[in-house]
Specification:
331 residues; six-stranded antiparallel β-sheet; 34% strand
């Protein structure tokens, strides 16, 4: 197979192989609709079939968008986002394609590549961030009771819509972890007081509300054995963030205890029968947080020696709080 110093998608067609360079962007939509980044003529493919997304680590994910005939990786149908490796065979509708990624050695030793290819940018710094972790409740139970085709449509629709909502409210999907999504907001703090603009925290809450509304709407669209529900952990604190990525829009990824605690808080919601668990710092930065009606809890997070304070509540509490705000954050 012909090799290049940049990743590309090799689409097999009746007229021969078609090579699509995967550069200068962080995601590409695929389908038979002309509004996609990568369009292929296939009556068995959905108009908007799937998304191919590259993360800051350089890993590629395939996200099915609830296509009728499904997306397959190496012959196996996928419902949740799946990590791809070089050489993986993708089937979308009746169209076969293959992901080809260069090795690290190729990147170092080869100067070949399209002239528009940008160098990778890396910058690590300490910033105040808010991490949102959203998890689909009882996903295992859903997989056991729902046919594979319907499951793919439901979960594919959820992941595709979740990514759109998170981007709409000023963040990006940092990671897909099984049936969960992690998003990060980088805060601009006041140099003197170190405070965060109220609108920045409200963006997170509005994103969370929209994610719940979207998830609830899927219950009306699909016939499921039980209602699709989500839970969320939100945590704010300092973390090491890294700007990394090829192309015109390098993005951030975050590492550290702030991130880990967000995942633990999401897990804690199941123990305290709540939909949402906010870290103590997150709660303190929300304007008029007392009107949120969240209850204070002390929870034991896995891996932590001391109990952690969290403020937890329901999506109904959140909706009531947001509906009574005097102004809405710009999106």
């Amino acid at each position: 197979m012909e090799t290049h110093s940049y990743p590309y998608l090799l689409i097999h067609t009746e007229d021969g192989d078609r090579k699509i360079p995967l550069i200068n962007e962080t995601s590409w939509s695929l389908g038979r609709g002309q509004d996609n980044d990568i369009v292929f003529d296939d009556k068995w493919a959905s108009r908007n079939h799937a998304i191919l997304q590259v993360m800051d680590s350089g890993s590629f994910y395939l996200i099915d968008l609830g296509s009728l005939n499904g997306s397959f990786v190496n012959g196996r149908r996928v419902s949740i986002p799946v990590t791809l490796h070089s050489g993986d065979r993708l089937t979308l509708g009746a169209t076969e394609m293959q992901l080809v990624c260069p090795t690290a050695k190729t990147l170092v030793e080869t100067d070949e590549g399209p002239p528009k290819q940008k160098s990778t940018v890396m910058l690590h710094t300490r910033r105040l961030i808010t991490v949102l972790v959203i998890d689909i409740r009882n996903y295992t139970g859903l997989t056991r009771q729902v046919e594979e085709q319907l499951l793919s449509q439901v979960i594919g629709s959820w992941f595709g819509s979740a990514g759109d909502i998170i981007r709409r409210y000023g963040s990006w999907v940092d990671k897909y972890i099984g049936d969960a999504v992690m998003a990060v907001w980088i805060h601009n703090t006041d140099k003197e007081s170190g405070s965060v603009a109220p609108t920045e925290m409200l963006q997170v809450l509005h994103a969370l509300h929209a994610l719940h509304a979207m998830s609830d709407e899927l219950n009306n669209k699909f016939t499921l054995p039980f209602r699709l529900r989500i839970g969320a952990g939100v945590n704010t604190g300092n973390a090491i963030v890294g700007q990394m990525g090829a192309g015109d829009r390098p993005e951030y990824t975050a590492l550290g205890d702030t991130v880990n605690a967000a995942f633990r808080l999401e897990s804690a919601t199941k123990e305290i029968s709540a939909d949402i668990a906010l870290g103590e710092t997150t709660y303190a930065l929300i304007p008029s947080a007392e009107r949120l009606k969240f209850q204070k809890h002390s929870v034991n997070l896995k891996g932590y020696d001391m109990p952690t304070v969290t403020y937890a509540g329901t999506f109904a509490d959140l909706a009531c709080f947001l509906s009574n705000l005097p102004t809405q954050p710009k999106t």
